[in-house]
């Protein structure tokens, strides 16, 4: 999937976004003045309009007539009207005539032509106020994305020439040592060189709970160091770091339009010129059919028609709805790569999932220790002494067994290909491996080991079977509840596809109540299974995975979902949705956020069209004034925007 790339050098770091941080000056008062200045034209026009209406109504000044009255209302109109007319003229010069600026300009100028000065000013004033509200709403919707920009690290303390120096993260190379103090952000992805560290990863995962990392484990750019000075060794350049990747995805997401959004914009381009020609028809056609035709009355109706027909409620509030959905999702640790995927997620009825790293933790742990005629602690000392000679993931899991006392040392250790290890520990011959190793050395094992589907390590000491250890991948804490919740939100078909052996895959699927599961699959096998599902046009398929081997299936699915924390870079690049917390339950939340977004978008469409159609009919029949027209345009737009902003305050429970 090709994606537009964002140049991260063009994104302002937090020092440029918030000037209060480092320059020693307090700009808050000047910023407040700047915000107030935005509202000054509308305030001036409102005061002038109210004074003019009061003079008209109470007939306070007899000389407030003729050119004085016109000049007064023109002065009230210019602060809010001139910027709109200017934008309309710019659009016309670019060849885009039928814009909302053009509609508002001819409607309000037409009101002045027929002597309806207060209404002309009022329409433009309400339009300007509506634009200010729209701007405020957009800024609120952008809040979560700006929060991502705010966590972008802007300096790194790198060890060079026997000293730590402060440099831009973009200049740090892979393999350099970086120091991070308490409260500072991790500038680049790397591995922890210090013994341990505690990190706030909320900017990356949406989870506020601090994450404790041990020496040698991965740390990610954008995380905040919570405890003590630490050192890391960088493993990626800044442009490839986790925070840079998130920024890239979110920035690109706002540029990807949903089908609904694209339809409304195309619709507005066709709809607007039709409305203009209908307004012309409303003005002149009645001359041929009405006996008491009065040009001024029918022009007034046409102007009302124009004001009502302005499509800004749709054109602005619908994209804002999707923008709000994207922001709400990112706040919850879910990154959609575009509004189109918000739409696609609402239709998902089939979920295909990988096993390892998706519903399991992807880390081997000791599940069971069975020592035969041996004390468990003593048995494990022999086993660990042997496994210290191995780099296999299973050996690593066994070595995590903690116990007091001095460990034994193994000597004369040899590896028997495909079977295990043989060596001497504490003067005794020890065999560690699979059943083939035991059989080859005439060691009788317990029958119960035959029924164990997980990885099993058999141990013989001095030619006698001493016991076994079962090693298994653990289920994630929320794996079971995820399957139940998926059924509740309407995802009825759930399938597990795994490269792990089929017996283990079936066991995990059984624990999770997944009816269809297949193991021992190559990447092309997974792809074939999904292609078979796609042959049924009623299946809307999402695939969730985390490994390089999942990339082809992620690309082929209607919605590809990748685990962003432990997931491979290839999977994350290919996917349409990224789960930053590695929690499968977030898929349920992603579906709920998508459906909430779509619901609000359609509420706005129905609201805008419904009110406009009613008032258009009333206006054409002479039953609606310019004031009703203002409500049908600006009022509906504001209601739609406020409805869209609700997404920022919603809470979703998995």
Automatic annotation (TrEMBL):
UniProt source species: Flavivirga aquatica
Keywords: ATP-binding, Cell membrane, Membrane, Metal-binding, Nucleotide-binding, Translocase, Transmembrane, Transmembrane helix
Region annotation (Disordered) ranges: 1-29
Transmembrane segments: 36-55, 67-85, 97-115, 121-138, 270-290, 302-323, 600-620, 626-645
Enzyme class: translocase
InterPro entries listed in its UniProt record: ATPase_P-typ_cyto_dom_N, ATPase_P-typ_P_site, ATPase_P-typ_TM_dom_sf, ATPase_P-typ_transduc_dom_A_sf, ATPase_P-type_domA, Cation_Transport_ATPase_IB, HAD-like_sf, HAD_sf
Pfam families named in the record: E1-E2_ATPase, Hydrolase
Keyword Transmembrane: yes
UniProt name for this protein: P-type Zn(2+) transporter
GO function term, MF aspect, one: ATP binding
